[in-house]
Design brief:
CATH architecture: Beta Barrel
Helix content: 10-25%
CATH topology: Lipocalin
Number of domains: 1
Structural class: alpha+beta
Number of helices: 1
Number of strands: 7
Order of helices and strands: EEEEHEEE
Largest sheet: 4 strands, antiparallel
Length: about 100
């Protein structure tokens, strides 16, 4: 069983990423323009899969994770990294996800 831990994303190499959705671990690929940190340059993020773990978090946490993995991440078209923040945008340039830098424990 997993505990309540924040959502994470890690860019592994030029085209892959993985992370934690709040209950399960996920992985995927991203593609597009090589200038990955510029707003307006098209990027697509595809979730390749995720674990199907039991979770001791509230059911709403699992609902949020499902929304993140199946609805929000596939809508990301660009992102920008500034200082300790990763902001992801949809095709209209609207912020849809914001990540903050977290140090490993």
């Amino acid at each position: 069983m997993r505990s309540n831990k924040g959502v994470t994303i890690t860019f592994l190499n030029q085209n892959s990423f993985d992370g934690y959705g709040g209950c399960n671990y996920y992985f995927g690929l991203h593609s597009g323009n090589n200038n990955t940190q510029s707003i307006g340059y098209r990027r697509t993020f595809e979730i390749g899969g995720w674990t199907k773990m039991g979770c001791i978090t509230p059911e709403c946490q699992m609902d949020q994770e499902h929304l993140f993995l199946t609805n929000l991440m596939p809508k990301v078209r660009s992102y920008h990294i500034h200082e300790e923040q990763l902001v992801m945008f949809d095709k209209k340039g609207k912020e849809i996800l914001i990540f903050h830098l977290a140090m490993d424990e």
